[in-house]
Amino acid sequence: MAETDHDPIHDVPQGMPQLLAILQRLRDPVTGCPWDIEQDFASIAPYTIEEAHEVADAIERQAWDELESELGDLLLQVVFHSQMAQEQGLFSFESVARRVSQKMIHRHPHVFGDESRDKSAAQQTVDWEKIKAAERAGKAETRTLDGVAKALPALMRAVKLQNRAARVGFDWPGAAEVLDKIHEEAGELVEARDSLTQAEVEEEFGDLLFVMANLGRHLKVDPEVALRAANAKFTRRFNAVEDALEAMGKRPTESDLAEMDALWDEVKRQEKSARAAE
């Protein structure tokens, strides 16, 4: 296209109309982008998951300027999948929007229907789950654990599976019983480490993680959120250790565990002092 040529994409109204037109153009088998043309649902799915995590990361960091951009990237994923589906005659972006709109209206009868709004958020959550259960039954998802997406992050899926089981009474009475189970699973992991195969060690490790997720549920702690916070804390403290080493003219590879551990303890002490002074 010559410099003086005008691409008609610029004449499409900005916002959703232009974004839909852009994806249609990118996927055009003659004039589109070779990379975009080659993609399918499976190849794009990892990007969709990545963009969702980047949205969550921006929210966690309260990076509101970044959040606008990250939400746009996530919306692009929805449009990309919808464009591929339309090409195959499966559905379109418009049908996706209609379907989710209908779902939200159906799941909020206390807002869009005749039911009373005079109930607590907890009761609304119970009602929401009843409506979803009825929807699953309509899709022949008759088992308690049907419909819990397998592609969810493992800790998040563990909690959802446990919540489903708890609704039919399959749950420990409280956190104390879960803690007892953690001690049991930790002992089995030690035994596996000492005498069993690597596959059996992995199985026992998975059992321990699963029970840890259950403990978080009983303590009303989201294990995914808690682990992200722990990751952020580890990153912050290790960066401080590196900064301290740099001030000494060293790199981590030029230090040893004893020195770095002492610096780590000092970073922790400083953090506690700072919190106490607030």
Helix segment tally = 12
Structure class: mainly alpha
Shape summary: extended
**Rg, alpha carbons:** 25 Å
CATH topology call of the domain at 8-107: Helix Hairpins
| Percentage of residues in DSSP E strands | under 5%
How many strands, which pairing sense, and closed or not: the largest β-sheet?
A: none
CATH superfamily of the domain at 8-107: MazG-like
* Helical content band: over 70%
CATH class of the domain at 8-107: Mainly Alpha
Catalogue the unreliable spans.
Answer: none
Give a brief rundown of this model.
It catalyses: ATP + H2O = AMP + diphosphate + H(+). Among the domains are: 8-107, MazG-like (Helix Hairpins, Orthogonal Bundle), CATH 1.10.287; 116-142, no CATH class; 225-277, no CATH class.
Which labels suit this protein?
Helix Hairpins, 278 residues, mainly alpha, extended, 12 helices
How are the SSEs placed, and which strands pair?
Layout: H1 16-26, H2 34-38, H3 41-60, H4 64-87, H5 93-107, H6 109-112, H7 121-138, H8 154-167, H9 175-195, H10 198-218, H11 223-247, H12 257-277
Helix pairs in contact: 1-4, 3-4, 8-10, 9-10, 11-12
Describe this structure as you would to a colleague.
It is a single chain. Among the domains are: 8-107, MazG-like (Helix Hairpins), CATH 1.10.287; 116-142, no CATH class; 225-277, no CATH class. The protein is extended and about 65 Å long. It is mostly helical. It is built from twelve helices and no strands. The N and C termini lie far apart (61 Å). The mean pLDDT is 90. The longest helix has 25 residues, at 223-247. Helix 8 crosses helix 10 (198-218), helix 9 runs antiparallel to helix 10 (198-218) and helix 11 packs across helix 12.
